Amino acid sequence: MIHFSKDTIEQLPKIPRLNLINSCTGYKSANLIATKTNEGVSNVAIFSSITHLGSDPAMLGFILRPTTVPRNTYKNIKDVGYFTVNHITETMIIDAHHSSASYDENISEFNQTSLEEEYYDGISFPFVKNSPVQILCKYLNEYEIKENGTLHIIASIEQIIIKENLIQKDNWLRLDLENVVTINGLDGYCVPKLVDRFEYARPNVPTKSML
């Protein structure tokens, strides 16, 4: 095993340090957040920090890097109040990764990639076409993480649109059936496969597989 002390980490060059710290915590979610400006320009950007916050009420959150530079996704969410979260599949990873490029707010990443907007009746905000899980979210709040200037964005889940074959009998979603990817570090994309699923763990009761 190789040991990295705090001092060693701080002395690493920028890119090796970024790679080490971003990958050492394990696999992360891979999602595209889609928004729209008040003027109607669509925006889509990849995020690897979206997490479940609660199921009653249904909420999620994500981390936004410091707003010391323009953050188009953040501006659109604050201006409009809604955004969508879209799962990324294996066939989408090249275009999804390109969405991290810093385009001007008047340029839609949908026009710079093969990603396509998708709309549903009564919803004026874009989803990402062919994403097997699409979530409409409403901005609720934000909290500054003072230690590094990032923001924790909190949102309610307003609607979930799911490809039918993913939904199991107890509403559990088997994401590997559509090759939903995860992110390893900043730029590595992986396709997880289901190994097993277990019943609710109780003291002194043997763990039992559900498969």
Architecture overview:
With 211 residues, the protein is an alpha+beta fold. It contains 4 helices and 12 strands; from the N terminus they run ααβββββαβαββββββ. It has helices spanning 6-11, 14-23, 72-80, 93-98, and strands spanning 28-29, 31-36, 42-47, 51-55, 58-64, 82-87, 117-120, 123-128, 133-145, 150-162, 182-184, 188-190. Strands 3-2-6-9-10-5-4 form a 7-stranded antiparallel β-sheet. It is globular. The mean pLDDT is 95.
Overview in brief:
This protein is α+β, with helices and mostly antiparallel strands and 211 residues long. Helices cover 15% and strands 35% of the residues.
Q: What is the typical, i.e. mean, pLDDT?
A: 95
Pattern of helices and strands: HHEEEEEHEHEEEEEE
Structural class, please? alpha+beta
Q: Report the sheet-strand fraction.
A: 35-45%
- pLDDT < 50 stretches: none
Number of strands: 12
Rg from C-alpha positions?
19 Å
Tally of individual helices: 4
Question: How would you write the strand order of the largest sheet?
Answer: 3-2-6-9-10-5-4
Distance between the termini: 35 Å
Q: Helical residue percent?
A: 10-25%
Oligomer: single chain
Largest beta-sheet characterization = 7 strands, antiparallel
Shape: globular
